[in-house]
Design a protein that fits this description.
Shape: globular
Order of helices and strands: HEEEHEEH
Number of helices: 3
Strand order of the largest sheet: 1-2-3-5-4
CATH architecture: 2-Layer Sandwich
CATH topology: Yope Regulator, Chain: A
CATH class: Alpha Beta
Helix content: 25-40%
Strand content: 25-35%
Distance between the termini: 44 Å
Amino acid sequence: MAAHDHKAIINQYLSRFYDELNSGLAESEKISFKLLDTDGFTAVQKGTATVGINVLEDKGILIFLSAIMPVPESGQLDLYRKLLELNFLTTSDAAFAIDRRNNQIYLRALRGLEGLDYEEFVDMLETVATIADAFDDKLKQEFGQ
């Protein structure tokens, strides 16, 4: 797969994913979506979580990223321990991470673009969306955000 084909392939996967979600739904119930923009980015909403999908062709990777919450002023040790414990098995292929530039906690998964098939794409997207939706509100409530 040539590097310039990656965005087109991910757009095909996105179209197929939404076609499957919308199959059998009335027109008024169908979910709208956006394909990747020129920078290789789009977002998918699930419950309270938004999952950004980023194709970084120059690095050859696909990143799924969902903002969870800002790092709180207090209780950081307990929060970090909780995130590491969740990373051990609960988050599957995803992991919690902190972006020190904006002091934000994210759930993220990344994979090389080469050899990525549709089923793996959907599995990663659904994993990040489901875990982020399950824990964003819980972590905010538990750690005061």
